[in-house]
């Protein structure tokens, strides 16, 4: 039985781009402008409860969104689809999982993640500035993001004020930073996905990270970014932490977590990215089909 793949979208629609014919920045081909204002994807309304395909795949068959137009340019030029992965050490694992499942002949999976980083740790590393420097002016076809494991702490805001974890000041500052970060990726014309965190072994850590996970999921819903909920993918039949799970193909007991009770094993990262890899392939295939690109 295939592993389940859980995406949290808005109950009504997923807003993914500009419908075909809408004249909002659709004439680009080439580099992303660093001076452009923050871009929030406008509406291409697709019912979230579709049995045909994930919303962005269904949208790809009907619309000409900004990310899709970037992807079409890539396909027409015969270049590999550029999948950029951002995050902390979990981002490293997500990159490893995706680059082993997306064929190298068709995809370039680029690792921009860096351990021990997060949206509360700007004194150590400003993620927005660092990411802008990393990717430069080049366009991105797909961006995959996984942060949060290092955000279980208070925050010093941009104004120098302290905010306790998950307090109102913390939430407001994190939301602002996420807005800017997603806006940066969208200025590079990327289709953005966010990968959440699985359950943790220690009860307090699990509670804290679960609360942060839920906050990030709500922010992704607000920004119309598909959120990959990994908790059902890496939990036992009761929804609890599990270091071992049966392989879905063989039934063999398989180690999916590292000994620290926080990170996934390399096999575990394959499990939690399997559905996302398939979704990215479907999105590319749907775009290729409507454009007639080879």
Question: What does it look like?
Answer:
- The protein has 294 residues and is an alpha/beta fold.
- The protein has a domain at 80-282: SGNH hydrolase (Rossmann fold).
- Helix content is 35%, strand content 12%.
- The strands form 3 sheets. A 6-stranded mixed sheet has the order 1-8-7-4-2-3, with helices on both faces.
- The longest helix is centred in the C-terminal third of the chain and has 26 residues, at 266-291.
- It is globular and about 50 Å long.
- It starts with 6 loop residues before the first strand and ends with a helix.
- Residues 1-51 have low confidence and may be disordered.
Provide a concise account of the structure shown:
The protein is α/β, with parallel strands linked by helices. The chain has helices at 55-60, 66-76, 89-99, 127-135, 168-187, 203-223, 266-291, and strands at residues 7-8, 81-87, 107-111, 142-146, 155-156, 162-163, 191-195, 227-228, 244-246, 253-255.
Helical coverage, percent range: 25-40%
Per the principal axes of the C-alpha atoms, what is the gross shape?
globular
The CATH homologous superfamily name of the domain at 80-282 equals SGNH hydrolase
Major sheet: size, sense and barrel closure?
6 strands, mixed
Q: What is the CATH class of the domain at 80-282? A: Alpha Beta
H-E string: EHHEHEHEEEHEHEEEH
């Amino acid at each position: 039985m295939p592993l389940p793949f859980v995406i949290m979208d808005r109950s009504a629609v997923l807003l993914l781009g500009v419908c075909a014919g809408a004249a909002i920045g659709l004439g680009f081909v080439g580099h992303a402008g660093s001076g452009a204002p923050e871009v929030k994807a406008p509406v291409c309304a697709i019912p979230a409860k579709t049995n045909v395909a994930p919303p962005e795949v269904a949208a790809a068959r009907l619309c000409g969104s900004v990310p899709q137009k970037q992807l079409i340019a890539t396909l027409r030029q015969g270049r590999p689809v550029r999948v950029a992965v951002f995050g902390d050490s979990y981002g490293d694992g997500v990159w490893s999982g995706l680059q082993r499942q997306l064929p190298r002949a068709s995809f370039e999976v680029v690792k921009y993640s860096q351990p021990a980083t997060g949206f509360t740790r700007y004194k150590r590393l400003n993620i927005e500035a660092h990411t802008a420097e990393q990717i430069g002016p080049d366009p991105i076809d797909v961006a995959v993001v996984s942060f949060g494991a290092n955000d279980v702490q208070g925050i010093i805001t941009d104004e120098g004020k302290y905010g306790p974890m998950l307090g109102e000041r913390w939430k407001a500052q994190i939301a602002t930073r996420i807005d800017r970060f997603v806006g940066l990726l969208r200025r590079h014309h990327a289709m953005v996905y966010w990968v959440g965190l699985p359950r943790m072994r220690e009860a307090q850590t699990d509670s804290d990270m679960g609360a942060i996970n839920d906050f990030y999921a709500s922010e992704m819903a607000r920004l119309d970014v598909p959120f990959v909920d990994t908790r059902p993918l890496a939990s036992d039949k009761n929804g609890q932490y599990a270091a071992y799970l049966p392989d879905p193909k063989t039934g063999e007991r398989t180690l999916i977590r590292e000994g620290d009770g926080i990170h996934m094993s390399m096999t575990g990262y394959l499990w939690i990215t399997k559905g996302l890899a398939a979704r990215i392939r479907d999105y590319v295939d749907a775009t290729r089909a409507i454009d007639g690109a080879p």
